[in-house]
Every structure is written in C-alpha cells, then in structure tokens.
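Box 3.1 A note on notation
Throughout this textbook, protein chains are presented in two layers. The first layer is the amino acid sequence; the second is a token string describing backbone geometry. Keep the layers aligned when reading.
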Amino acid sequence: MNHVERGQGSEGTTPAAEQRPALRYGYSQGIPAGVTAAWGARAIVNTDGTVDLVHDRQDAYGDSTAVVALLERLNAGINAAWIAKARDLLRSGEMSTRQAEQFVLYRDAQVSVLGNTNASAGYLYVVAYPTTDK
C-alpha cells in the first residue's frame, strides 16, 4: 500500500522545544528538535527489497493542519520515492535488517524522510517531517 494515513497517535500538547515528539510507530529518534509535525510508520521489509507499508502501523504528531499538509505531500509522490529508495538500499545490501543505521530516504526543501531498521530483522522504522521545521 502506497497511501499513508493519519494514525491514532497523540496530538502534541508539550511544545517541541521542550520535548521531542514520540510516535507510536516510526523512527521517533530521527525527529530533530524543533519539529512541529511528524509522520511515522513501521514498514515490513526484507533484504530482497520488499517494503510493505501497513496502514495500521502509522502515526502522526503535531498540529492537525501541519499534519494534513505533510500527509498530502507524502501522498503526492514522496511516499513512492522513499519506498523506492529503501528498496534499492535493501537490494544493494547497503541497508541491513540486522544492523541499525539511519538513512536519508528522501529530502527536498519541504519534506525529509529518514529510516532505520534498528537491527530488527524485518522492520523499517520511518519518520517524515517538514524540512523547514529543523
């Protein structure tokens, strides 16, 4: 599934400067300080390049207007781009499901997408956030 949806995550009540957002699913450690909206997911991956984005393993954080804008950008093609990059990294062996390492899966002037398998042997933890928030 290549469409991201807003999960049942918590809306942020503490300013981002005081506390880093925590996503129920996704790569919360990849969220830089000062980010006001973020989306995360736990995708199922395999070293053959399989990347499955599961609809009920996604979450979002932040002001609803900012989250909606972020999801619209992801659904407009960024999602497909980061999935393609993750597939390439897995197939080439550069990304390992058995070694924790952060990867930039997509970045432009508006959105950044990071991922890390966290040595989970089957999951890719992903976070997307507005690049301008950093």
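The chain has one helix and six strands. The chain has one domain: 28-133.
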